[in-house]
Specification:
Blueprint: E1 3-14, H1 53-65, E2 69-70, E3 73-74, E4 77-80, E5 90-93, E6 100-108, E7 113-125, E8 129-133, E9 144-148, E10 155-161, H2 168-185, E11 197-207, E12 217-222, H3 225-244, E13 252-257, E14 262-268, E15 278-279, E16 286-287, H4 290-298, H5 304-315, H6 319-325, H7 329-341, H8 346-364, H9 375-386, H10 392-405, H11 409-416, H12 424-437, H13 439-446, H14 450-463, H15 470-480
Parallel strand pairs: 12-13
Antiparallel strand pairs: 1-10, 1-11, 2-6, 3-16, 4-5, 4-15, 6-7, 7-10, 8-9, 11-12, 13-14
Helix pairs in contact: 2-3, 5-6, 7-8, 7-9, 8-10, 9-10, 12-14, 12-15, 13-14, 14-15
The structure holds adenosine-5'-diphosphate, zinc ion and magnesium ion.
């Protein structure tokens, strides 16, 4: 039997506010443990929460950006459970009246487009962090645990998708797009390494053609877009095998192990009624002035979809390039800064950014705005190609060097004597040598084999150590042959 996967993502995002959700403690990351706490976020009896308006605004902004209905009346609930990283033994969250409902995100896949529904976006507070000592950092086998409440009470937004996602690739594209939107909105830095964006993936399988959903598993500990994709791929394999051998899938939460490349049971699923949700009596419901919301809508910045359209319209880029350039806000910003400095065709800039530069960034796992190569580096390099100083082949070496040292291309060219050989006489002599040394290829060329010509050009480039002007080599070789 053939199965189709059904995937829904729950994305938690720490909002970029100065202070926490219900107190005035700082949200700064990386401070000494338990230095950013107060009676409210430590859950002391008698302390009272006061909502952070900025956080509410950020959630509504997000809802507007992904076409949600905004609730004019909303409320906070208590979600009751015990865990040592949560001092109150309940989390202030939202239940039946979240701030935003019924949105959607359009995805441009390589050769089709699709739309993913967003069920809801709600606002809650983050928990503290447990540090397990011994036992390789996992709770099982640890000698003891330490708790840091700096994160407790940081505003957390949860974006819940409909089960509209069908492949791991779509899941990754959806999560990346959500990140690009949130970064454009300025509501979060969405740093997955630091945990300010956390993706949980729900996945079930069903026989192709069947409407009804199967039993799902929820995957946790997906710490990068890559692990999201790999975790889902693994889970599809596991569930397919189970279903094919007639085993039932258990509804449970599973832990993705990045090094072992597998998922394992973390806990069987809890249900909403286990949490005994009730409205938080310390917090009055929120009512919004529609005008305030329309004001937020009017202030929305340019979003990835609009940016993509603009790149196609104003710069004449193909959809493929435009899609990749808007994948992160930083990439689009880099591209625009480069185009502003460059007088040639924007497509050339796009090629270098999406080609060689991305290659090095990915290989070293560096973000484009954190790398040594700035737009000015790339533009100076392309200018050197345009004016004939260097060949495209040399440029590839220069990118690698700029990436390592941050030196400007002109300085690298001078230092390493990489200028292009464009002297008629010098190239002519090299072409003569190539013809003399390769009689077989010359014969093949005369017999009509086009490939032999390419081979001879390659030999000439080799003799010039990649510095020969390719156009000139082509021209002289053709003449002499
Ligand atoms: P739960 O009650 O387990 O929290 P929800 O209905 O709240 O489940 O959904 C949580 C997430 O799981 C949502 O993103 C939703 O789209 C997704 N989801 C729900 N049912 C399924 C299913 N059968 N297969 C895959 N994903 C699902
Ligand atoms: Zn506090
Ligand atoms: Mg749920």
């Amino acid at each position: 039997m053939e199965y189709e996967s059904v995937i829904g993502l729950e994305i938690h995002v720490e909002l970029d506010t100065e202070s926490k959700m219900f107190c005035s403690c700082s949200t700064r990351f990386g401070e000494a443990p338990n230095t950013q706490t107060c009676p409210v976020c430590l859950g002391m009896p008698g302390s009272l929460p006061v909502p952070n308006k900025k956080a509410v605004e950020y959630v509504i902004r997000t809802g507007l950006a992904i076409f949600c209905d905004i609730s004019l009346f909303s409320q906070f609930h208590r979600k009751n459970y015990f865990y040592p990283d949560m001092p109150k033994n309940y989390q202030i969250s939202q239940y039946d009246i979240p701030l935003c409902i019924d949105g959607h995100v359009d995805l441009e896949m390589e050769d089709y487009a699709t739309t993913i529904g967003v069920t809801r976006i709600h606002l809650e507070e983050d928990t503290g962090k447990l540090l397990h000592i011994g036992g390789a950092g996992r709770i099982a086998g640890a000698d003891y645990s330490q708790v840091d409440f700096n994160r407790a009470g940081v505003p957390l937004m949860e974006i819940v998708s409909e089960p509209d996602i069908r492949t791991p690739e779509e899941a990754k594209t959806y999560a990346q797009k959500i990140r690009a939107i949130l970064v454009s909105l300025g509501v979060s830095d969405c740093n997955m390494d630091q945990g300010s964006m956390r993706v949980d993936a729900n996945i079930s399988l069903r026989p192709v053609g069947r409407e009804e959903f199967g039993v799902k598993a929820e995957l946790k500990n997906l710490n990068s877009f890559r692990s999201l994709q790999r975790g889902l791929a693994y889970e599809i394999e596991r569930q397919t095998k189970a279903l094919q051998s007639g085993e039932a899938i258990v509804q449970e939460t599973r832990h993705w192990d990045e090094t072992k490349n597998t998922t394992s049971t973390l806990r069987t699923k809890e249900y909403a009624h286990d949490y005994r949700y009730f409205p938080d009596p310390d917090l009055v419901p929120m009512e919004f002035d529609p005008e305030w919301i329309e004001g937020l809508r009017a202030e929305l910045p340019e979003l990835p979809d609009e940016r993509r359209e603009r790149y196609m319209k104003d710069f004449g880029l193909p959809a493929h390039d435009a899609n990749l350039l808007v994948e992160t806000k930083a990439t689009g910003d880099f591209f625009e800064a480069a185009v502003a400095l460059y007088s040639g065709d924007a497509k050339i800039m796009s090629n270098w950014i999406l080609g060689d530069l991305t290659y090095y960034l990915n290989a070293e796992n560096v973000e484009i705005d954190a790398g040594e190569v700035k737009p000015a580096h790339l533009v100076e390099m392309v200018d050197l190609i345009d004016d004939g100083t260097i060949s495209g082949k040399i440029a590839k070496e220069i990118i690698s060097e700029m990436f390592k040292t941050g030196k400007m291309p002109k300085a690298i060219v001078e230092e390493k004597g990489m200028t292009q050989i464009s002297g008629q006489d010098e190239i002519a002599k090299i072409v003569d040598d190539v013809i003399a040394q390769n009689p077989d290829a010359v014969q093949e060329f005369h017999d009509g084999k086009e490939r032999a010509f390419g081979f001879l050009v390659g030999q000439a480039m080799r003799l010039t150590k990649g510095r020969g002007n390719p156009q000139l080599i082509n021209k002289l070789l053709k003449e002499k042959l």
